[in-house]
Amino acid sequence: MPRMTELLREHPVVDGHNDLPIAFYELCGYDLDAHDLSGPVPQLHTDLPRLREGHVGAQFWSLWVPQDEHAVRRTFEQLDFVRRLVERFPADLELTSSADDVEAAIKAGRIASLMGMEGGHSIGESLGVLRVMRALGVRYMTLTHNNNVSWADSATDEPVLGGLNDFGEQVVREMNRIGMLVDLSHVSADTMRHALRVTSAPVIFSHSSARAVCDVPRNAPDDVLETLARNDGVCMVTFVPAFVSQRYVDWIAAAREAVPDLNPLRPDDQVKLSEVYDVPKPTVTLDDVVEHIEHVRGIAGVDHIGIGGDYDGCPEFPEELPDVASYPVLFQALADRGWNDTELAKLAGGNILRVLRAADDAAG
Questions:
Q1: C-alpha angle 133/135/138, rounded to 5°?
Q2: Which of 56, 136, 206, 334 could, after both became Cys, cross-link 339 (CB 3.0–4.6 A)?
Q3: Residue 243 pLDDT more than 80?
């Protein structure tokens, strides 16, 4: 793929979401001496050699923690891990915040490291904590994770507010004021619409796909994608099988109904499930991801799309996209479908860098 190698060398991938921090915690308790990320770490989807092979120029590291009374402390611990990770590998990684920082790091041959909080529970209902997180370099906050917060409805919880309450609107406005990107992945469709009405800056979906292609609440409906284009935001398409393949989603639902004691999303349970449930798991492919990218482009336009793989955030990925080394395969598939170099450069990182700049410009 010489064309993709040249293209991604000049316009490397800026990926919107990678869960290495929580995956590394679960692997070894944040112990950077336990597993050397400068070499292969097969237990993970992410290490430095594979980031280089995948032509990743900048990565938003996700700060995700359980939604409990320790969430704020644990989020600071994840932030500390990212900072220590960057300090451990100064020749490869650079902590960045702005689009200019990202471009300077890439020019210097390093992978720009940005941070995003995955869930409004990480601020403990405090605008002061939100401001401190931004001061420490956190560039986006996903308004919810899988459960509601008191001020915003999640996509995968029972709706309570029908979007945001008054404090939720305050959160969005304060994020605009301090230059923190509003991330609408994980929130309900009504919360998406409400936040888009309130925000004065472009928003993002850090790792979501198209609901019209795969009908799950984690994905963005077409009317939201249309509004996103008018907002000048960006939807960073994810690779998670349960969000990109309707066949896979339908199989999960049928398997849960047939064998309710097993979770078909857990690898260990999948082995047990195969012994008692005779419907084989569908294969999720590169084509499934490409279909979402093409759909988001068709609805929102090529200026409003990016990539948010969600590596190390779920146990399995499409067979041609197993880890962070896989991005050139995806870009070659799009080139084969007629995407030109300018369009691929926007997808790779140009669009999200534009949104970062817009957030800084809108900050007061």
A1: 50
A2: 334
A3: yes
Examine the residue annotation and report whether 17 is marked as an active-site residue of this protein.
yes
247/78 Cα distance (integer angstroms)? 35
Question: Is-catalytic flag, 55?
Answer: no
Residue 194 catalytic? no
Query: Could you tell me which residues come within 8 angstroms of residue 157 by beta carbon, excluding any fewer than 6 positions away?
Result: 144, 146, 147, 148, 188
Q: What is the CB neighbour count within 10 angstroms for residue 226?
A: 14
Known catalytic membership, residue 33? no
Provide the greatest CA pair distance for the chain: 59
The Cα 307–Cα 71 span in angstroms is 27
Other beta carbons within 10 angstroms of residue 178's beta carbon come to 16
Distance CA 63, CA 138 (A): 9
In the set 92, 94, 310, 312, the catalytic residue is: 310
pLDDT score recorded for residue 275: 86
Catalytic residue list contains 166: no
CA distances, 80 to each of 63, 137, 160, 179 (Å): 10, 11, 34, 21
Of 186, 292, 295, 304, which is the active-site residue? 186
Of the candidates 145, 194, 292, 295, the residue annotated as catalytic is 145
Of 92, 118, 153, 312, which is the active-site residue? Answer: 118
Q: Using the predicted structure, report yes or no on whether residue 203 has a pLDDT greater than 80.
A: yes
- The catalytic position among 11, 15, 19, 169 is 19
Mean pLDDT of the chain: 97
C-alpha 196/C-alpha 176 separation (Å) is 12
Which residue is catalytic, options 11, 15, 17, 55? 17
Tokens of 11: 């316009």
Catalytic residue among 207, 292, 295, 304: 207
pLDDT in tens, 31-54: 999 999 999 999 999 999 999 999
DSSP string, 175-208: HHHHTPEEE-TTB-HHHHHHHHHH-SS--EESS-
**Among this protein's residues, is 304 annotated catalytic?**
no
Considering the entire predicted model, what is its pTM? 0.97
Q: CA separation (Å) from 323 to 40, 93, 153, 300?
A: 12, 19, 31, 27
Is 292 labeled as catalytic in the residue annotation?
Answer: no
